[in-house]
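thought: user wants a sequence for this fold. calling inverse folding tool.
action: design(structure=
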């Protein structure tokens, strides 16, 4: 009995017991696994031999067990794996938590693409309106018509014309009128009498471009004597040619006067009408 205790305490016993336990676990796992193929196997033959260390105590009886390779069941087919007790016992290492990924650098906000500046809108061109040329000041002159000499010779006046002679002797007082450049005294007289609704009668000779005034305001030549008739003067002078040949200048003063003595009574004996 003491020898068995000694044997169980020895290192060889420990190895033998361990190998036996492993064999039992493998065999049990093989038969217990569902669907595993079973192969007939002969009785296991295990041979364990170990020399005990020399000591003063009597050696324990040897324990031998023969296990032949044929007694070990063949390995499981490839599709079935038998977990080993070592693998089952070994704990699966817990993976270390990986370090949290560092946050990537915050991208700097890119400036919004600026739109290309719009092409400047051309300002509308203003074509300057040409200013009209300055209007020339109108040409003016002064004209009057009077028959005062008849008042001094009423005894010679045709009785039929007494009613047409003005009491003052003035048929048209001094009147400023406009005229066009190149107009004659005759042209001005025609326009004024037409505007003032005064009667005018004349004789015009185209060959000489000459006009002779016969009557104004129904007072004709020879109505107040054989030497009576109409004469004109400009700026106080009696021209010695017809009124259609005298061209008016700005500022001229034209006077038409009735004479009873061929101009001698009005200061123009050598003049013509």
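)
observation: tool returned 273 residues.
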């Amino acid at each position: 009995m003491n020898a068995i205790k000694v044997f169980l305490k020895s290192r060889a016993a420990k190895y033998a017991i361990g190998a036996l336990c492993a064999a039992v676990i493998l065999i049990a796992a093989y038969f217990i696994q569902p669907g595993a193929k079973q192969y007939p196997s002969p009785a296991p033959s295990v041979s364990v031999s170990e020399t005990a260390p020399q000591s003063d105590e009597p050696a324990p009886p040897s324990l031998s067990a023969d296990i032949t390779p044929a007694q070990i069941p063949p390995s499981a087919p490839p599709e079935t794996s038998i977990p080993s007790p070592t693998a089952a016992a070994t704990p699966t290492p817990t993976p270390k938590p990986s370090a949290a990924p560092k946050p990537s650098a915050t991208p700097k906000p890119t400036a919004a693409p600026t739109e290309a500046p719009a092409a400047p809108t051309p300002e509308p061109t203003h074509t300057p309106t040409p200013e009209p040329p300055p209007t020339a000041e109108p040409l003016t002159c002064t004209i009057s018509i009077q028959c005062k000499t008849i008042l001094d010779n009423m005894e010679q006046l045709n009785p039929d014309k007494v009613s047409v002679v003005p009491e003052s002797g003035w048929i048209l007082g001094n009147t400023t009128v406009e005229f066009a450049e190149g107009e004659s005294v005759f042209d001005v007289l025609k326009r004024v009498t037409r505007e003032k609704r005064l009667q005018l009668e004349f004789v015009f000779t185209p060959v000489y471009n000459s006009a002779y005034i016969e009557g104004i305001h129904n007072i004709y030549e020879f109505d107040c004597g054989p030497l009576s008739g109409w004469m004109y003067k400009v700026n106080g002078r009696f021209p010695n040619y017809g009124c259609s040949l005298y061209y008016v200048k700005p500022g001229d003063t034209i006077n038409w006067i009735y004479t009873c003595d061929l101009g001698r009574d009005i200061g123009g004996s050598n003049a013509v009408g």
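thought: summarizing for user.
answer: Here is the designed sequence. The beta strands are 139-146, 170-179, 200-205, 210-216, 219-220, 229-234, 253-259.
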